[in-house]
Design goal:
mainly beta, 8-stranded mixed beta sheet, 12% helix
Length: 222
């Protein structure tokens, strides 16, 4: 079954399955156009405004989970929220963060939100096996390349999609470079199996997952 993944910028992804659409971490107030979608489920990793702007993406009758921890079925979609922190000091600087693992059709997706530290073995075990991983990479307010690669090693996804990095988009808020100081190029340095898409979306099936781990970089939203 085909799953379409659309990047709206920042840490916001729209994921369309056969019968349901999920949006992760919709943003607002960062100086670029707000995401727009018709989501059955919106999953917000935490309460910061650049990750919980639900209004433009939630369709009538949709469900929102913010900072959810636990496991439940939401509109027949298995959702697991794993408790983590937004910083490397137990949440004392930026608070809590929920990592979401979602089974959409026959794909396991994991969105790390604003993860600020390496995963413990217990957290990695709770997340489980992952097909597609959305990970922050730019340091500052989240993990940087070194910790991101440690997390990737623990979860061993087939597809890695970097997020939460400074794209240099015109109009973006001046604070973005400060909270995301490391470039995408630093994360990609020395990596060979990298695909840059022609558009801001990609389509994935269980059968099309690469045998060798691949980094996929969606194009910047227009």
């Amino acid at each position: 079954m085909l799953v379409d993944i659309i990047w709206h910028g920042h840490a916001c992804f729209e994921v369309r399955g056969q019968n349901s659409t999920i949006v992760f971490d919709p943003f607002g107030g960062i100086g670029i156009p707000e995401p727009k979608a018709k989501a059955d489920i919106v999953l917000c990793s935490h309460s910061h405004g650049d990750h919980n702007n639900v209004r433009p993406v939630l369709k009538e009758g949709g469900v929102v989970l913010e900072g959810f921890v636990g496991a439940k079925e939401v509109k027949d979609i298995p959702v697991k929220g794993v408790a983590t922190q937004h910083d490397a000091t137990g949440g004392s600087q930026r608070g809590k963060n929920s990592v979401y693992a979602v089974q959409l059709d026959d794909l396991k997706l994991c969105h790390l939100g604003d993860l600020g530290h390496d995963l413990t073995p217990e957290q990695a075990k709770e997340i489980g096996k992952v097909d597609v991983l959305f990970t922050p990479v730019a340091g500052g307010a989240t993990i940087g390349p070194d910790v991101a690669w440690s997390v990737i090693t623990k979860l061993d996804p087939k597809i890695i999609i970097p997020m939460h990095y400074n794209t240099g988009l015109s109009g973006a808020s001046s604070w973005l470079p400060r909270v995301m100081p490391i470039s995408l190029d630093e994360f990609l340095k020395g990596k060979k199996n990298v695909e840059k898409t022609k558009g801001q979306s990609l389509s994935v099936t269980k059968e099309s997952l690469p045998k060798e781990q691949k980094i996929v970089v969606p194009r910047l939203p227009a």
